[in-house]
Structure formats: C-alpha cells, structure tokens
C-alpha cells in the first residue's frame, strides 16, 4: 500500500479552493489523524488559464474529467463542481471505478442521493456528503452517530444563510425585504438571482436530506412543502416583536407513528426557542429526540473554509475506513416506507393578520367563526388603523389541525366584515407572558 | 461469532436505568444500526432487594463485581457507578479482560483518562466517554470527527446545568443566589451539598476532558483555574442587563502558538454571543475553529435518558467497531507537550464594580490609574448611591493582559478614594450599541 492518499477534485471554486487550502495548511494534523499524507493529485476545471486567488501549479489542473475519474492512482474524488446532471455522471463513473466520493452538492443528493448510495454500496465505496447541509455544522454525523441510539421525532432547521440574513436585517434594522436582499447581494450572501434561496428551494433540498437521515426513510424532494420569504413584511416582524415572536425561515420535519411531514416556511418562533437566537447568515439545526430531548447544532452554513472543513471531515472518515478496510459499510439504508401526513394529521399554531371593518359586532363575527371551527386563541392584538375606518387584528391560535386552519383562512376571506387577510404564518414554541 | 452483543452494567442509578430502558425500547432500531441484538447480561448493584422504578428481573442483578468483570460472555462493560477509585479498578480489570468500556464518569476521566486510554490501546479495546461531558450533547464526537480536519483555537462551554439554572433564575426572576439554589435543589437540579457544582469543580473536570480532545494535549485537572458562582449577586446581573451582558459560568479553553489556558469562571457574555441564549439547566459548547469559524453544540447536560443516549451512542460505536474488527484504534493520542500561558500572555476584557467617594476629582484618579496601566475603557456606568455619599462605578475594559488587570485590581484596592471593589469578572464578546 502506498503511504499516502490521492485526491482528485472536481471543481476549484469557493469550496474547492478551501479544500486545497485546508489540505495544505493542516497537512501535519491530517497525517496525525489518518496516519498518512493526503495529497491533491489533479483538479478538473473549466479553464486552466483562469486567474485564481489560490496558488496552485497549472500541472495539477485539467479540463478533462477522465484524468480525474480514470486515474488509477486517485483514491478519493471530491465533487465540488455543483449542478446536477454532470455531477451525477461524474460520481457514478467515480464509484464504478471504485473511488470513494465526497460531495458538497445538496441539489444532487436531494434529487439522487438514494440512487448514488446504492451505487456506492455495490462498489464497496464510501459516499459522504456532510457539507451538503449547513456547511460547517457537523449535523449529519451528529444525527447518524452522536444521536444514533435515539429516535428522532422532530427536526427544525435554519438551513439557508441568505434568508436568515435578510430576516435578521428586516427584524433588527427595520429594513424592507428589498433593501435587505440588496444588502445581502452586495455582501455576497445572496446571488444575483436569489430565487432558490428566498423561495425556500435550497432549504427544501437540505430538509429532504436531513429528514431521510433522521427518519430512516426515503423522503423525496417533492414531498417537501415549500414557501419562501419574499412576501414577508416588516409590519409582521414588528407585530412579532410585540407578541414575543421572531420570524425565521424554518425547515420542519416531524414524524408521529411513522407518518411524516416535511416543509419549509416562514415561521414565527417564540423568543425562548433556541433557534430564535440564530442570527445573520448562521445556520442551526434543532433536533428533538425521544430520549435526548432538545439539542441544537449551530454554525456557519456556507463559506469557503467552513464548507471545506465538512468536506475534509468526510475525507478523514474515508481515509480511516480505507486504512481499516471497511469502506462502504457506514451507509444508513432506509428502513421504513415513507407515509406522508394528511392535513388533518398535521397540527400547529397559527398567526393571522387581518383588516377588519371597524364596526360594532365585527370582532364577534371573527370569534364565532373560530369558535365554530373549534380553534381557540393564544394571543390577540387589535390596533385601529388611521385610514378607511379599519382595525388591524392579529390572532395567534392554540394548536389546531392544518385542515382547520386552512378552513379558517378560507372562511375569513369570505366574511364581509373582513376587508383583507394580510398574512398567515405558522407559529412554534411557547410564549411566556 | 455469536449473533448478539452482551453488556454488563456497573451501577443501576439514574443513568444505568436510562441505559436499560433505551436498550429495551429501542432494540429494533439498535438491531438495524449494528446488525445484531444488544442484550444486558448482568448488572452490579449495591443491594439486590432495593425497590427500583425500573422493572428488571432480580436474576440480572449481582453484588459481586466479578460476575460482570470476569464473565467471558460479556463484551462491553458500561460503567455508571460513579466515584473514582472503585470505578478505576473496575475499568482496568475490564480492559485487562479484553472488554470494551463505555463510561459516563467525568471525575474518573478527568483524573485518570490518559492512563485508562493507554490501557485500552494495549488491550485493543475501545474506551469511550461521550456521556462524561454535557450529557446528551454529542460534543466529543463533534470535536473528534465532525471537526476532525480543523484546528480548534477556542472552546467555551456552559457545561454545568445546576449553575446555569441558578444564574438564569437570578437574571430573569431576580432571585437571590440562595433562593435560586434552594429552588434548584427542590427541583433535583442541585444536590444537597452543591459545592462541586457551584464552585465550578464539576465544570473544571469537563473542561479538562474537552481541552485534551480539542488541543491534542494532556491537560491535567489542576491546570484548570476555577472560580464558582457563590459570590455572584443580583446587582451585578442587573448592571449586566444595562450594559448588554449576560452572566454565565463559562469554561474557557484557548490555545495560541501551542500555549494554552483553561479556566472556569463566572463571565459576562455580550448578549449577541450564541452562549448567552442558553438558559436554565441546558448545556452548550461553543467551538471556534481556524477554518470553520463559530459553531455551537446545545442540549441537555444531564438526566437519565439524555445521558443514556450518549452512553448508547458509544455502545453503538463499540459494536460497529467489533463487527468491523477495528476496536482500540479510534483513540486520539495526545501529540503536543502542554504549555500553559503565563498571566502576561492571557488577554481578555474585564468588568469592575466599585464604590467611590463621591467627591471632586475622585473619578479622574480612577481614570489616571487605568491610563498608567495602559487599560482603556469600553463602557462606563456611574450611579449615585443614596447612602454614605458614595457613587457606584462600573467599568468594562477593552482587551488587556491578565497581568495588567490583576495590577489594576490591586491598585484600585489601595486607592484612598475607592471605598471598596465590590466585584470583578471577565467579559467575552462585543457589545453592539
């Protein structure tokens, strides 16, 4: 056996450069951990001549994927090229050539994770993807090893840094959504086209990956119900402050009696909830286990070096397995059929903001509507509006089924005294008076 | 190979009962994870006849340690008996009989961890102790696997639930130290003799274990500088609120240029610090890595089932290693000589509260004292006291060496205009105005 491990990189962007930098700077620590040197042998790039921040000899670079994927000297392929189809083909080719694979690609794993894991097992290869969820936060190992003996019941995640940054700025500095988004773009926290982030699609991919691992079942991306933050207004955040609530884009994954729900939606959290204190671009995953109770994993969700740390933790795990001769054995195969909850099985608290005609008996029409649906109130806030003889009403309900809350929403919209239902959000946690 | 793994338990108290319960309730999940049944074979107790909350047949119980330690059928010994000497002898005997050991015993590991790890390696046995720090929080695996490729620079922990509960109650409900302690005792969060908790000794043991793992060096328990919370007053907590600071009992472990400091002390945290939001009996460990930046692991620090979850995660790891034939290989041996920082190499911000004669020029004597020591102020708060023509002054300094802050403290005490230095605490984090 040669006394070093060779790595082939697919991609040399933000994360790829971080990986090269970590291997260079932490070589001595790596040797101590895995007992041998870890070397980068070749790197697939689109343009060898391109100016790069990172210093690396051109001889390492290639535009031909086969020079990485077919090189018998390369033990581990690190995929940080992004995108879905090309990355998928590269990874399948790598696994078929008996190379272990580490990837940071959440889109790919969310869509094709189960297929790729099967391929990895068939070839006695490791396929690890710690960096695909919450960047530097070691949440996947936390779930599959740290909490291995427990039964996870509920998982809530702030797994998108862009939207958390925007909501923090709206909440703390009173910025509008548009201004906060612009600021995030200027700082490089949001892309020119922010759709995948602000509409919750990026978070949905991570939640699918997390839910699979937590519940041992094959959650598909389309099982995740998604709504984004582009309609969230500063007014709602201000009301939240009065009610002891903080708005976050939360990925939810719950399981009861082997029936599950997975969603991503703007959610009001009680200020006492551990996730309510997670600010700016930080990520965190809150895990509720039957035995352990409440735990939370917090850290940077993106960035070159944090994400590279997660990639390298996977590389270290692969090399340890190589030296022990046990690759391809730590994959957790799904063991349950996934059964999704129906709306009458999904329970939660809800926040409604509505404009009401400011006339005698108007409010009692609202209360009788909620009474009839058997929905009780946790908090109510009424403010007169200067214009149009309207009152603004905020209602926070106790826990009700999603079916009831949807019915309430429809009936409120039909009620003549209700001028408009301005907004409707989920609420999590207990507000102490 | 027999198709199940046998466990011998030393102790059937809070944690032991949790372990028995988890093995019973999660048997199916365990089988799926490790590929075979996990059975409790025998349990060492002091009194077989004692009434217990947990249902377990008397045939499992024994008062003879050798029935666990010498039974060739037992593969893994789980030590949850507590105490130091007896537990140490049992564990050595178990390792010499080639049994893997899982322990929740922080006192033992803090004092004899390195010796026991050596013994484990000699016998090709695993020795795991996840449950010894922060109960259900998988922090040891987080450090040694999740952040394996990074270089940890700083670690701050709320690793004692009792003191965190007391400080939370003092801060939020304005209770005195004595009343809050009484409440904690009534709720079972504090022991009848609370010394080990409130004086920081329990936290010091955990910090020694964490610092060893994070910095790859043999930190000894006596390297940890300790002060407790029994002198913390509600007045200081109230001033903290005005200054944007929260008091926590913080275990600190820093390393710069291979020189380290480890301490446990009541510390004012900026409210924006992730640890500042950790309330009641919860624990959390904040880890700052060179590449990953800020991460935090949060969860229950004690309790039967949370701690049992950590014990069982270790058992799962041992069984996986057994099936792969790789036990005794995942121990991280220390690789650096430990060098402790001297006081002039330790830097931090400081909070001073003092009573000053309310006379012309008094305050300028304070400022010139600090000027001469080259200490600048971050925040100052002056309040007249109704009695004795005194003023109460709070000073928060910028970062200075511990040597300078100690000198300032001594000189303040000697200054005739200073009636009394009431309190002095460390401060961490940036307070934003």
Structural summary, described in words:
The structure is a homodimer of 433-residue chains. By secondary structure, the first copy, chain A, is of the alpha/beta class. Chain A has three domains: 4-135 and 304-324, 3-Layer(aba) Sandwich (Rossmann fold), CATH 3.40.50.720; 139-299, Dihydrodipicolinate Reductase, domain 2, CATH 3.30.360.10; 344-428, 2-Layer Sandwich (Alpha-Beta Plaits), CATH 3.30.70. In chain A, 36% of the residues lie in helices and 27% in strands. The first copy, chain A, contains 14 helices and 17 strands. In chain A, α5 (106-122) packs parallel to α10 (201-215) and α7 packs across α8 (177-186). Chain A is elongated and about 85 Å long. β12 (293-300) of chain A pairs antiparallel with β12 of chain B, so a sheet runs across the interface. Chains A, B: Pathway: Amino-acid biosynthesis; L-threonine biosynthesis; L-threonine from L-aspartate: step 3/5; Amino-acid biosynthesis; L-methionine biosynthesis via de novo pathway; L-homoserine from L-aspartate: step 3/3. Chains A, B: Its cofactor is a metal cation. Chains A, B: NADP(+) binds at residues 10-17. Chains A, B: The active site is at 206 (proton donor).
